Amino acid sequence: MLDSIVALGDDEIETRAIVPDDSTVFEGHFPGHPLMPGVLLIETMAQTCGTMVMAAHSYERLPLLVGVKDAKLRQFVAPKTEITGRGKLEHAGSGYAVAKGELLVEGKRVANAQLTYTLIKWPAPELRDFMVAHIGELKASS
Amino acid sequence: MSSTFDTVSGIISETCDIEKDTIKADSHVIDDLGIDSLDFLDVVFAVDKAFGIKIPHEKWTEEINEGRASAEDYFILSNLCTRIDELVAEKAA
Questions:
Q1: What domain range is A85 assigned to?
Q2: Cα separation of B41 and A14, whole Å?
Q3: Cβ–Cβ below 8 Å for B45 and A116
């Protein structure tokens, strides 16, 4: 979902995502009135905060989303919209992490949620290598 | 311990929607209260915040899975409260 990582710190992150103009998603959601599905807004927050959680753990653990709380989808998001994602690490627990995520469009908050991740050992070294390289590319794209 | 028990049982009651009266010191968090791993994560988060500690949840899970500790060591509520008291004392030391 993410197009670039604008800033990545120990406990916060800012990302950028542009909703595609054309996608099969919009064929059914909705015909003649394309809107970004709410679950994909949550996924955008999850990827934003998940990237931050990964970096906060020095890329030694893979964060898996296991909980979404207090999610609010405040405004419709249409194709071609540029979204700013922000994440803040709420708590780095043992084997888990909790973050607050939000999405903004033109400075106005359109979605927010509290996200919980369980942290697992990388199931394959190739996956870790891929994720680290991909995050590097996203940072370079900003 | 009684104060810790009050706080933890309150957290479990609120987080897992369990009547507080049914939560006893000898309750097993999983077997008696039916709390699953995801709900327990919410409990750990709330306990971490309430006591300002970091429950070594990952280490405990490894110890149980590798047979170096029994689930009762951590999941019987009185034992869990003792562990929490120890972590609070360690932090204060």
A1: 4-137
A2: 26
A3: yes
pLDDT for residue B42 is more than 80: yes
How many structural domains comprise chain A?
Answer: 1
Is pLDDT of B1 > 90? no
Partnered with residue B26 across adjacent β-strands are: none
Establish how many alpha carbons lie within 13 A of residue A85's alpha carbon, considering only the half-sphere containing its beta carbon: 31
* Average pLDDT of span B23-48: 95
The reply to whether B68 touches chain A by the CB within 8 Å rule is no
Verify whether the Cβ–Cβ distance B61 to A91 is below 8 Å. no
In a domain, A142, yes or no: no
Catalytic site includes residue A29: yes
* Rg of the Cα atoms in chain A: 15
Q: Which CATH architecture has domain B2-92?
A: Orthogonal Bundle (1.10)
Which 8-state DSSP code applies to residue B29?
T
Give the CATH number for residue A74.
Answer: 3.10.129.10
Measured at the CA of B41, the angle between CA B1 and CA A44, to 5 degrees, comes to 150
